[in-house]
Design goal:
The protein contains 15 helices and eight strands. It is an alpha/beta fold and about 375 residues long. The protein has a six-stranded parallel β-sheet. A two-stranded antiparallel ribbon has the order 6-7. β6 and β7 form a beta hairpin. The longest helix is centred in the middle third of the chain and has 23 residues, at about 210-230.
Length: about 375
């Protein structure tokens, strides 16, 4: 097991009817900004319910944070934070709203150019003049942003990952009931997203991290078990609760501590989203099966372990087991209604150079846990993904 430091300061309130906990976490007398996305939180009455919990505080709202939150939108929210002298932000939504809120909490009073945070992947030392504390009310289980220190921000046609301990929420309310009204497509995307998050941490090479492997395998098997039910039966509390906790655990740091991490599937997927508008999970579902195949020499031992422990594939030669595991992965995504070929989203081979150019512009030319996934290998992966 590799050396690691672990710290996760986010307080989680999980289960039914936990909105009352927001009132105890947000300081009395605070000037609060509620951030949200396309308006479903407003239409469902959730924002009104939160306003009741925040009674006695000055409450403002900022809606319209997009999927793959745009830098320009977030800077408008940051301006509102300054104008209203906001001293607490409450993100109500899924990963995009939470990611955007994380950025706003730092960018609102950043001493330098906030775009530098995005381009550098972290705030510069000494430039965070003041951070506005924030919490979250999760409505879409997928990204794990409610319990991690990362955000993905869209800027000038590309997606950028930003990481800093400042991005850990003070608290997060995870009530699976708040996700019951989600469209099936978003629920399916959430299952795929959480699944691939675990894979990025698990499917590398052995380092003797036995407990991390077992936790990862448990999360993957749980997603395989409950994912189809969570999609098909939106008010099945057991399925949705397990999906929600799987998504949070995936990036909580527990599985990722002391192990190599890949993230090449995500980096390539981010460019597919930025260039062609695929949902984040759709891009991951396209890239991952091909990534497994093309990189089987680097991931051979863990692919065999994945085949045997996660999918129960014990017969046949090693390569046959790996082939079967890759096929099972693709079949699982497809069973949720998530396509696994670029052609399914109308993307053709002649469009791929724009993805490679975007990766090269961001310096994404030596990806993976072994830092040897070149643009040429990425080209092969993309071509096989069509």
């Amino acid at each position: 097991m590799l050396n690691f430091n672990y710290h996760n300061p986010t307080r989680i309130y999980f289960g039914k009817n936990r909105l009352d906990k927001v009132g105890g976490e947000v300081p009395k007398g605070a000037r609060v900004l509620i951030t949200y996305g396309g308006g479903s939180a407003k239409r469902s009455g959730l924002i009104d319910n939160i306003r009741e919990v925040l009674e006695g505080r000055e409450v403002h709202e900022f809606g319209g944070i997009e999927p793959n939150p745009q830098y320009e939108t977030l800077m408008k929210a940051a301006e509102m934070v300054r104008e209203k002298d906001i001293d607490f932000i409450l993100a109500v939504g899924g990963g995009s709203v939470i990611d955007g809120t994380k950025f706003v909490s730092v960018a609102a009073h950043y001493a330098g150019d906030p775009s530098d945070i995005v381009k550098a992947g972290r705030p510069a030392a000494g430039q965070v003049a003041k951070q506005v504390p924030f919490g979250t009310v999760l409505t879409l289980p997928a990204t794990g942003s409610e319990m991690d220190s990362a955000a993905v921000i869209s800027y000038q046609g590309s997606k950028y990952s930003v990481m800093t301990p400042l991005f850990f929420p003070r608290f997060s309310v995870l009530d699976p009931q708040l996700s019951f009204t989600l469209p099936a497509k978003q629920v399916a995307n959430g299952v795929v997203d959480a699944f691939v998050h675990i894979i990025e941490l698990y499917l590398t090479y052995p380092v003797g991290a036995l407990i991390q492997d077992r936790v990862a395998e448990g999360v993957l098997q749980t997603l395989i078990e409950v994912g189809p039910t969570s999609v098909a039966e939106p008010e099945n509390y057991v399925a949705r609760a397990n999906q929600e906790w799987c998504a949070a655990l995936a990036l909580s740091g527990i599985v990722g501590s002391g192990v190599p991490q890949d993230w090449a599937t995500h980096m390539i997927g981010h460019e597919l989203t930025a260039k062609f508008g695929l949902d984040h999970a759709e891009s991951l579902a396209v890239v991952l099966p091909v990534m497994m195949d093309v990189r089987r020499d680097k991931k051979h031992a863990k692919l065999l372990q994945y085949a045997q422990r996660v999918w129960g594939i014990t017969e046949g030669a090693d390569e046959e087991k790996i082939d079967a595991a890759i096929a099972k992965t693709r079949e699982f995504f497809e069973s949720l209604g998530v396509k696994t070929r670029l052609s399914g989203y109308g993307v053709t081979a002649d469009q791929l150079p724009t993805v490679l150019a975007g990766l090269e512009a961001q310096g994404m030319t030596a990806l993976s846990e072994t830092r040897d996934l070149t643009l040429d290998i990425t080209r092969t992966i993309l071509e096989k993904a069509v």
